[in-house]
């Protein structure tokens, strides 16, 4: 008689889709949180608190504590994305695209580590710092898509093509505003280093000029977000789409209030930090809106009516 097989251990058993969804949600949260800690490093002028990488070298008081704390937070993010990758491979239900996205998170994490080391070695050049932030936004987007693909299958009504085009315009315009925001920060007073040895800044445009360009581009997002919500309401989209459109409007309004206030008050560090966090949340809201529409599927065109003769 063959003895019964022992149940699979916790580390070898297959994951359910709900369990993997929790892991991908954790990845989104971790990648969002690391943006906040990175902003704290910059705004507390701790970017060169550690003069080497990956160790801290010659520590510079509490600046070193802040800088090294951000690096430890990066290690936590690395663990989270590795766990997400393992979870994708342990998923009992095969879903296309999950493995490629999980590996993209791993590759992006190591690219972020390389950019972090390069920024310290080159004494915080603004171009490298900008690339560091924008890559974070790319990783947040990848994690958001990965998380959306772990949603349980459900019947969703189709959406109109106008909504799809609006959502694409929102994603593209938000990406442009994020780029302009990093250029504005790279031109402004917060270099991330000690004032006695400030890091280089962008000089191709004056701060008030690049701020005006950034602000005007942000106005476009406000218009698109309001138009998106109006079209969602008019077309009678389902509850998920309506909620995602409302979140976009809320994130846009909050970000606009913070942005206008920080500029009026001369860019205080606390508000700049809130503006960075708000930018990440806005990016997530815009991506969530687009992904909610994709899940609904396209709306089929209504076939033209055909008159049938009475004697047929």
Short description:
With 312 residues, this protein is an all-alpha fold. The chain has helices at 17-43, 61-89, 98-121, 126-149, 161-187, 207-235, 239-264, 269-296.
List the helices and strands and how they pair.
Layout: H1 17-43, H2 61-89, H3 98-121, H4 126-149, H5 161-187, H6 207-235, H7 239-264, H8 269-296
Throw out a few tags for this protein.
single chain, 312 residues, mainly alpha, 2 domains, 8 helices, 0% strand, disordered N terminus, disordered C terminus
Describe the 3D structure.
The chain is mainly alpha-helical and 312 residues long. It folds into two domains: 11-153; 154-300, no CATH class. The protein has helices at residues 17-43, 61-89, 98-121, 126-149, 161-187, 207-235, 239-264, 269-296. The chain is flat and about 60 Å long.
